[in-house]
Amino acid sequence: MNTISSTSILVDQSIENANQSRIEKLVQLLLSFNVDRKRIDESNHQHAKLVLRIFAIYMIFVSNVLIVAVLMQSAESFLITNTFECHLIQKRFAVKTLLTERNVQHNVYMINFNQIATIQDIWQFMNETLAEVFLRVQQQPSRPNSTLIHWVLDHFLLIGVVRMRQVRVKPEKCHIPKLYSDEIADCYPAYSSDKKDTDPFGPITLSDSTDINLKQPWRFMSKDKTGMGSHTGQHGKYDGSGYIADLAQYDRTYRRFTRDINELERFHWLDKATRALFIDIITYNPSVNLFSYIKLVFEMPLTGGIFPSHKVENFQLFRYVGSKKYVLIICEATIVLFTIIFLLVEILTMIKLKFKIFLSFWNWIDMILLIISILLIIVNIYRLILINSTLTNQLSIYLVTFDTAIVKLLRLHNLFDTLSILLASISIIRILKYCDFAVMLIRIKATIQRCLGDLIGFLVMFVAIMIAYAQFGNLVLGQQAPAFSTVGKAFVALFRTVLGDFNFEDIRDAAPIVGPLFFFFYIFSMVFMLFNMVLAIIVDSYEELGSERRDIINQMLVDVTPFMKHSIQRFFERLGVWTKVRVLVHSIIRAEDISNTKTIGDLLQEFKYSATSSTLYEELHQAFVHDMTKTISKKDFDAFLKYAHRDKDRQRDTLQSLFTGKKSLINFNEEQDWNTHASNLCTIQQWAQLRYRIARLEELFNSMDGKWKYSMRTSKNLLRTRNLSREISEEKQNT
């Protein structure tokens, strides 16, 4: 029994060791995807092989991301947007005025959507344009249930009804002089969450409200009940709450639609307390499988006036239909698999490097890419669940109320599209991480690393100057030029001016004297000075890198040429045709060398246009008239044009020695050879510096010589004086 138990323990230990070895191999395999630096024990051949392998694997991921991003876009989206813009935005309608009501004039004033300026124009647009497009439709008896389906423009199905939503503000006391306060009681502020109106208004506040059919539009609804999202317009940001009017609800006919519009107009549903009006319409085109969300916005700021805008968004909610659904499913499954692998690699790298992982730029890119991939997977799963639970249980084309579920799906699909585009863009940028086998890309990366500090310093100065110009432009030109009405718009306008997109007439008309001066100084300081400074910083860094930092390029370079040659050789060796392929390659190289050779006739013809005189060409042509078909190498051809045009005698001797093969052209003349070596050993600047130093040495030697002579003279005088004093003292002693 003891033997059996010990044997089982040994078997369990061996199985555990085998599992541990497999886990270690898996960890090493995942860590091998990190090719930021070459390992010490790794050869160049192994590192190049690893880089190419990971690059090929990553390109599979990038190709799948691009396929998903391309398949989610439809080429018909632009056509649908253009169709609705032609029938809604650009279509002209008659404006109701006092003269037209009295039939005084026959020429009715016509405007389009973008020219709407009053609340009366909005009601006229709803009655004529919007009702004609979406409610006055022809029934199609050939289709089942055609009485319940509304076709729009013959190709679109109306989903639900047309919804109008307005946001209002509460009146407040005006801050005006007391002289006007008796006549002006209330003022209406700009829209904000703390000043919006939530109280009922209109006819439902009266004791007798039995003569109205629509009661909901006069009551406030929160954004949770409306199901609408917030909107950022030109003059403010508006939440999803407000007063809702679903037109032609439960009876989607033209007559019911116009009756509801006339009732809202008669009881003044829109007034000066309204800050924004939103019109939401949803359609579906079964021919191209696209949902369209049309949003018409009328902003009414506290300054007065109406500012219309519109947006048409097209979405493909049913993505897994047709022949492309299998391709889409495979690509999305591949992205999920790669995301799991990237997550494991990032976790292991974070455990290994800890906080050092945040010191690398590419690690930040990897983490951003991983976060976007995970969010994209979560949003896609949630979107599929909502589609299956919402659109499969009900057919929205039969709805007689506004479908808020589809609005929620459209917002979620918009988020999915945004994440897909971000993932595709960052994935393409990350390709540069594996492109260290291209010398030019390495030089660009090293140049950016070298000049990054200077560029950041320049960016700070650039932003400061741009803010100063934007503030000045807003203060001086803001009241007249639309591009400078706010500081933000002025900042954008100045950026566009740098790119050459500007309207000088608006600047000149806004300030005839200051405007042109402002434009001149801005162009001079920003374009001619600062942007040339950026180019100078980058060019200097690039040149310094080429001359001083070749070791950086050698460290970053992944030389894949030997590995590629070895792989190609092994491939053809396995096929047994390597010898034939090598002979073929050598023959092609020799043929290329032969094609690069030139004849004497070509040389003289080229020299004809580069010679200093026509007589020199004629003398050379007569001297070598019988040798025109002889060939010379391209190296000697270029060397002759470089060196042999100074002296006609030297040219003739050079050609004779060249064609007889006695000497090489470059080493023919000792003086030229010496000049060539001297130019390689010493430049003109170095020679001038050497001459300056020699002159300084001569001055020092002359100064030292003068000082030495002065010291010798002084010492001789001292010795002479000492000897005289000694002789005088001796004479005194003797006497």
Automatic annotation (TrEMBL):
UniProt-annotated location(s): Membrane
Listed Pfam families: PKD_channel (PF08016), Polycystin_dom (PF20519)
Disulfide bridge partners, by residue number: C174-C187
Domain annotation Polycystin cation channel PKD1/PKD2: ranges: 320-544
Location, primary (coarse class): membrane
Family: Belongs to the polycystin family.
Record bears the keyword Membrane: yes
Taxonomic lineage from the root: Eukaryota, Metazoa, Spiralia, Gnathifera, Rotifera
GO molecular function: calcium channel activity; calcium ion binding
Domain Polycystin: from-to ranges: 113-317
Domain of life according to the entry: Eukaryota
Organism encoding this protein: Adineta ricciae (Rotifer)
GO cellular component: membrane
Protein name as annotated: Uncharacterized protein
